[in-house]
Predict the 3D structure of the following.
Amino acid sequence: MSEKSSGSGFAFLAGVAIGVAVGAVAGLLFAPTAGDDTRAYLSEKSKDLANDFNDKFDEFKETFNEVLEDVKGAAQEKIEEVKEVAQAKIEEVKSATKA
């Protein structure tokens, strides 16, 4: 295989997903149900999809904020450690220069 094909897995999956979505919409539009029923079904499903998306996005935001807080805490701890080491070195240098 060439190196160009290494990124094509995502493109293939995206193409399959788009094809499935287009096929599903075409199947609904050409199904032997009344247009009003089909539109109502599509409206309901699109609202469900939007609600699911919003729920997943809210979960993502919560997780992201938790991780961000963890990173901030860890960074603050490291900053304090570096300050302590630097202060100790400053004191060491001051002691050495007084002697």
About this structure: The two ends are 70 Å apart (CA to CA).
